[in-house]
Amino acid sequence: MLVLTSLSFSIMVLFCLAMTKHREQVLESEVSMLAVRFFRPFAWLLLLFTGYLSVDMYGWSIGPALLFGALTIATLLLILLLTYRAKIVPELAIVLSLIASMSIFIA
Amino acid sequence: MKDNFRQSMKWFHTWVGLVVGWILFFMFLTGSLGYFYQEITRWMEPERPFVVQQISTEELLDTAQIYLEKHAEGADGWDIMLPNIRDQNLRVGWRHPAEPGKKRGKYKIKVLDVNTGDKVERRATGGGRLLYRMHYRLHYLSTNISYWIVGFCSMLMLLAVITGVVIHKKIFTDFFTFRAKKGLPGWLDIHNVLSVIALPFHFMITYSGLLFFLFTYMVLSTNLQTNEDEYREMRKEIYPRTVHLDKTNQAAKMLDISFLYQQAKTTWQASELSYVEMFAANDVNAHALFVRHETDITYNPDDEITVNAVTGEIILSKHKQYTVAAMIHNGFFSLHEGQFSGPVARWVYFFTGLIGSAMIASGLILWTTKRKPKQMKKTNGPDFGYRLVEQLNIGTIVGLPIAIAMYFYANRLLPLDMANRINWEANVMFISWAILLIYPMFRPAAKAWYEQLQLATLVYIGLPLVNALTTDKHLFNSLNKQDWNLAGFDLTLLLVGGCFAFAAYKFKTLQISKRANNDREIEKQTNRPVQVANESLLPLQQVNKEKC
Amino acid sequence: MPYLVNKLNFSSPRWSVLSRVLAATLGGYILATASSFFISQLLMTSVGKYQAIHIGLMLTFIVYACVAMWVFSVKTATKAWLGLLKLSISFVVATWLLMQFNGVAS
């Protein structure tokens, strides 16, 4: 569940960075438009992977249900951070996805 | 109604939400608490011992069986509920044979002290069960009337969810938008954010809620399409049951349940067993059903194993057959109840439920915020309708959490030998709520908000203290004994109290800054309209807090 | 009496709203019920009687929601009532035709 939430957070950060108004909020430096164009497809890919992971971990019925829960919590967290601590969002996303990928490989 | 579709839907959404908003808030909040009903019951029965770790399932089963053999004589069926992460006590239950003229016998449930093997004398309490039953049984009303009211409200909720999506113009571009400090748009953002992020949950919980009483609500259609026998057949198909052999009244010696469990568990991992049902105990037909924790949202036949209690053979019973529609139906029930979820997922469920409550609350507050500037300009003061909505908002959004805390206070403070103690626990809750609903009538809105927020802080922080004064199951002991359910309950209360304190503080500061703004405005003699922004933000913060 | 009628002021938008509320609750319920007959008759041959009825019932809430939204979106309350009437009758007639076709007494 925590892995799912971490990954969901990264997904949502990617979606959010794909939007200009939020990118300006979160990142200080400019990102090349080429990179930006990859954010959204990459987010969808990651979502697909997380979906697969949830089914793999919890079975086809519980997995998706938990994924929706994870997405809800992750989005809420992201929105609150965007409003109050926007600058730490990228760092947090990187740390969380590292933790998530580590725990996947260990397990 | 209005000029275009979206406009009329906007109007519709506003009024549909307003009409039953407070009942929906009640349903969502008590329903969310329901995700922890076992934990709440455990807290409300402080006579139960602390967790005793490291006892094998077999030993527990033996203890339970010895107790049942002695005390449940003549009972047709036994239940043994093993300690689990949610309720760490061993519990046994049995149903007495039906008295003549009655359909079913009385059901008794006892908590056992695993050290002594004897039952624990518990106080009379409604527990978490009574609290969560309120979210569809509404307590004082008769069952049928409650179901219809709940159904009506759920239907309007479903409408509010659907129309909400229709009228939300920028559901994707504004997905992450939350402008915290801009008053009315801020409220709108909060309402939108809370609705959108948990949209799958809101839809699922509402629709599945309606499905629970499908045949009650759609009675006209069912009656016209089926006769009595067909109806019974249809229900059998939708809610399939395993048929169990009845008592023959030929006594037989049963094997130990722990031994039967050894036979049954071959395919299971350790500590997966959730409960055991014994049918036709001490009879030739005696057989035990071992059920492990749910591993699927739909029915998984591997979760149950039946064993003949006399011979010890595994009975290959026919699996329940679900039609596709029944499987979907049943799947929605599981999703609604979330019984399958582990500790983290359960918190997510609870939290999402609170998001739902907060969404409803923010919608209700939005209604008054939007109308406030216009209402304040009226020479005779705000309209009756506006004032009523505001009062109900204060009395419900802050008042209901306080009332729920009062339910817990009643549990600790009412005399233990009181007659009708269970009823009185609930009465205390509803009386407090009634008082808190009436109270804002006599106070200016801003003061009433602030005072009730303070009161909420007080009652939530005070509850663990009262717990410490009246029982030995207080925070210090529970942490010491590592009883995380008990400790978690007290810690959550403190956290909620802290959130209310923060909300009250925030409310006050924004109130002051708003007044300062106003003064400046007057000094400047400008004609700009007074900003409602900050002031309206406050209750909202509090709503956010409630989720904590 | 005319005084009373004047006082009630039937042209006021309040009456239109009340009429729509009634149309949505009662009319919507009837229409949802009629739709459940139709759906169950439609599916009866392929999935069996009980499952067909069950699916019809489960979908009624969705139908009901759509109907209620529609009632509040059309120009006048009269139009809403007429629409409900037309749709309910068509569902009943369609159900009857399907029953003849299915050939099973229901």
From TrEMBL, chain A:
The chain crosses the membrane at residues 34-55, 62-82, 88-106. Keywords: Membrane, Transmembrane, Transmembrane helix. Pfam families: DUF3325. The keyword Transmembrane helix applies. The keyword Transmembrane helix applies. This is DUF3325 domain-containing protein. It comes from Colwellia psychrerythraea.
Automatic annotation (TrEMBL), chain B:
Coiled coil: none annotated. It comes from the Bacteria. The chain crosses the membrane at residues 12-37, 145-167, 188-215, 347-367, 388-410, 422-442, 486-505. InterPro entries: PepSY-ass_TM (IPR005625). Keywords: Membrane, Transmembrane, Transmembrane helix. This is PepSY-associated TM helix domain protein. It comes from Colwellia psychrerythraea.
UniProtKB/TrEMBL annotation, chain C:
It comes from the Bacteria. Keywords: Membrane, Transmembrane, Transmembrane helix. The chain crosses the membrane at residues 21-40, 52-73, 80-99. The keyword Transmembrane helix applies. This is DUF3649 domain-containing protein. It comes from Colwellia psychrerythraea (Vibrio psychroerythus).
